């Protein structure tokens, strides 16, 4: 049977004669959905809030501008991922040392804590490192029982922190005296790491510095204290 809605001369003639019903109106093509884009107060598009897929829809407006803008957005996204790549303290042994420390990667700071169970200051530093690892998730914090990582490492040198950048040793902090003993706070440890550019801190002064009267100076790296009061003139 012939399709009465087919667009033919015969069907047109039959419609004119009233034998066939009129053709139904053509279906409208669905309108393209508007691209979701944040509009600023002055009515312009806020490209900074768009995803990379949304930016693709606008690149014809200024292809050179959008290619550069997309490159910057992609770099920012990669940087954000890198900043959140760690976030916890990793326990390692000697067999993991090369992979986790020396081969940590380009642009990566590693803070390695050698400790011994049952030593209060070692336990304190491990607690502080847990907090700092969450705060500075772009830094790789690792810990290891000293003699499982470095055989015959002397107990007298514990706790010990070794700071690496891109696999190279940059600083070592050895023994309880260098940390200032059990008075060490998480803020003070953050300040110590900041002096080596491992982290960025808001502290302008060492949190271990006390009092106004007789001032106490604390080395920015070590916990050794020395009197800094003015000597009386004879």
Q: Would you write up a description of this structure?
A:
- The protein has 234 residues and is an alpha/beta fold.
- It has helices at residues 9-16, 52-56, 63-83, 97-102, 120-135, 146-149, 176-179, 186-195, and strands at residues 89-91, 109-115, 140-145, 160-165, 168-174, 216-218, 225-227.
- A five-stranded mixed sheet has the order 1-3-2-4-5. Strands 6-7 form a two-stranded antiparallel sheet.
- A hairpin with a 2-residue loop joins β4 (160-165) and β5.
- The chain is rod-shaped, with a radius of gyration of 34 Å.
- The chain starts with 8 loop residues before the first helix and ends in a 7-residue tail after the last strand.
Straight-line distance between termini: 126 Å
| Helical proportion, percent range | 25-40%
Number of helices: 8
Give the biggest sheet: 5 strands, mixed
Shape: rod-shaped
């Amino acid at each position: 049977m012939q399709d009465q809605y087919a667009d033919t001369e015969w069907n047109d003639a039959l419609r004119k004669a009233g034998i066939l019903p009129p053709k139904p109106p053509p279906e409208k093509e669905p309108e393209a959905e508007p691209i979701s884009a944040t509009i600023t107060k002055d009515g312009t598009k806020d490209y900074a809030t768009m995803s990379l897929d949304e930016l693709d829809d606008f690149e014809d407006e200024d292809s050179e501008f959008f290619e550069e803008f997309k490159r910057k957005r992609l770099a920012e996204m990669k940087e954000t991922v890198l900043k959140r790549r760690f976030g916890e303290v990793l326990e390692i042994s000697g067999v993991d040392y090369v992979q986790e420390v020396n081969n940590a990667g380009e642009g990566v700071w590693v803070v390695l804590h050698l400790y011994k169970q049952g030593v209060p200051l070692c336990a304190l530093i491990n607690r502080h490192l847990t907090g700092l690892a969450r705060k500075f998730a772009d830094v790789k914090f690792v810990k290891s029982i000293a003699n499982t990582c470095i055989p015959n490492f002397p107990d007298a040198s514990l706790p010990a922190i070794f700071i690496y950048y891109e696999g190279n040793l940059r600083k070592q902090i050895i023994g309880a005296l260098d940390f200032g003993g059990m008075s060490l706070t998480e803020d003070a440890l953050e300040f110590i790491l900041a002096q080596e550019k491992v982290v960025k801190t808001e502290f302008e002064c060492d949190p271990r510095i006390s009092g106004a009267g007789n001032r106490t100076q604390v080395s920015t790296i070590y916990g050794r204290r020395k009197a800094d009061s003015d000597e009386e003139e004879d």
